[in-house]
Amino acid sequence: MTGSSTDRESTFTPATGFMGAIDAWMAANPWHPRIAPFIVYLALLAGINLTIDASPYLYPVLYAIQFAVVAAMLWRYRLLLPELTLRFHWLAIPTGLGLCAAWIGLGFWMIALAPAWFAADGEPHYFERMADTSTALYGISLGLRLAGMAILVPLFEELFIRSACLRGLHSARKTGLGLVQLVEDLPIVGDWVLHSRLGQRVRGLPGQFTEQLRECPVGMVTAFGFAASTFVFMVHHVQRDWPGTIACAVVWCWLLWYTNRGDRRMGLGPIVWSHGITNAALWAWSLGTGDWQFM
Question: Which of 29, 80, 206, 227 is least surrounded by Cβ atoms within 10 Å, i.e. has the fewest?
Fold first, then answer.
């Protein structure tokens, strides 16, 4: 973003031993520290979803581990992530609350359009089962979920979607060439592509995804970058919530551009705050209404 940001990244010193190898991998490519927390969170979430039916008491333990691991990653590699700020802008409040309303409203609209596909299945939500099991379990789990939704998720998700994907996929041409480079590394088909005319075209080019990320400043929004990053944002949410993800993408991309235009450089902070307020409001609405389907 700025000269000082570059200085911050250059001061990162890998550790030694096993952690040193991970540190070196993180520092080797700007995509690595921006995508790794996202992947780790999803992997641990899959583990939570697989075990939650076995015992509700596993949920707060596993969720706390998930929170701690991803938070530790963000803290450890903070010097490699200069755009991940906590700078606040007042627009985070109206955008955050407005997007919560839009998320819920659009979700109910999707349910009304296709109830057979999107309506809740009628089974008690695991938070309801926790409330019946233990008041302490219910309260601790709700508190952990609020911390995860309002603090942790906005940090790593905006880092991946509105920094790595929005910037690293901002050019349709370079993204296409980057996909060819990825296919070349695959077994069987990669060898065929390598010797094709298209493969010859990308031979000798630097990594196109990495080049895009490095050349695109935080806050720059292109039509293709918006479309590509929004697609990534959509596909890791259920289909019922896709209209909500599009609404969020429009507002947060605009807010990112607005708070990083000209000489203003607020980084991801304003959209992290807006995202956190949206999620906190969604948590509060779910708790107040007892309708957990949007959690």
Answer: 206
